[in-house]
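Lest this sound abstract, we think one record worth quoting, the chain in one-letter code, the fold tokenised, each line plainly labelled:

>
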Amino acid sequence: MKYLSSSIFQGVILGWISSTLILIFAIFVGMWSKIMGLDVVWNLRVGLFLTVVNVTTRVVSFIACFMMPAILAGMLVLNKIAVLTGSGAMISQLIEASITRGPLCTLKACFNSGKTRTLAIVIASVLVWQYTVSLSDLYLHLTAVGKSQQLPGLMVPSARSLDIATNCSLSHTDTCSRFKRGMTNPGKALQIYRNTSDTFQIWNNNDGVYLLQAPPSNTSYAYSGTGILLKPSCEPISSICNLKARYGAMTNYSCPESLWYASGNTQAVVADVNVTSEINDPITNTVTTLNPLHAIVTIRYGIEATTDYDPEFVKEIHGFLAILLHCQLTTSTVEYVVTLGSLKSSPLGNLTNSQQFALGVASSEGKMISRAIDDVEDIAHNTGNSILFANAFAQQWAQATIAGFSSGAVQANGEANGEGNGEGYGYVLEVVKEQTFAPLSAVLIYAIVITFPLFIFSCICLFSLKNDTNWILVEFICTPQRLLYQALFREHSMDDACSKSLSDQAMRIKEVECNIKLEKGHFKLTKTE
């Protein structure tokens, strides 16, 4: 019971238990984290992370206070100090520093001479460690940030693919005939063009215009399937085709052989797309459509008086602007994966000739093309630059083409009944996790400050178990200062300094010299007035 009731023995046990737990805790936290660049990341809400750090700091600071007697006893053994000799004021300051660990009184005790200075420096070391732990805690609080990380969750298989009609021909009755493309489902085509369709999604990318299935209704980290890719390009050819205003309602053009001898009058129609890559065989009544698809596009706008148009925009006699574009449309089917809003695709194959033919018909469907031309008119008037205008029209033309083609010839499949046959397609549910990012430097500083000083102080505590004399001496040092005064001045009354403040007591014992030691198993204190 003697040992169990001693604050020194309790400090030794608490110090080693704490050191072991802190080390295990540090290893566990390190294993639970991952390093990304110069940051350490935990899948933990930043508020909870900082609460754990704050609790750890307070616990370690409390442990340091509880271990103080054991640390002082260990230092007495290491320095072979069995007797404290000095003035009463000096010993009083040491006692006050060991109890309160106030910065000012501890600093005063460190400047005293004699054997008490070593113990004062030990007390100051523990005090500095406590402040250092608090500063490293503050640094970690200031630098740790919370972020919401989107992570992949459960994989849901689904045959997400596009079913493209195969019987596209010159017939009046098939799914995607010349006479039915974009005409039977204009509302659906417009939805796809505006990207408001429930089943299809148009994706504009640097490498072209994609037709994909609409994203899953569930918030998804990633989804995949098959789609159609159109790679459009347009260039102004007004000067190449000798487009000029002649007289009256004549603004003629005549293109060279490289452009299939295309010719006409821009004033004959407001807008026209003349597909020039179809080869018609009247004997077999078949049409072969080349890939890429080529077209000569005629566009007319009203003129903006304040805009300086480049020479590719030709002014007609009646005040309108006309421009010719040579456009190409390369088509293919692709496999795609969309991950957190980023699209990646790989080639899958080409459209069949009949599908390519139907796409060519869709590229010249008047209502959809008129919408595309209207949507880029402001670029012509705002810039007057035919190159910028041609590039913008290419994207809108491809979007209008794929919208018209998809409204009749393409069906989305695989999700009608909530499940499909897989085939490698499907979607991955999104899981949003709160994460804490802290600089690696802040984490290392905090871990070192928490772990190693506590381990060193625990080792010092072990030496306190070697000598009972030092136990008695340290327990006297860690006794309230008022008891020191009572030990030095036995006779006193209610009106003397024993009942007053510690500072008054310090004045009374200022000139007292005392010698504290152990003789024949008893603690002895002698004084000289």
About this structure: The first helix runs from residue 7 to 32. The chain has two domains: 7-148+434-528, 159-424.
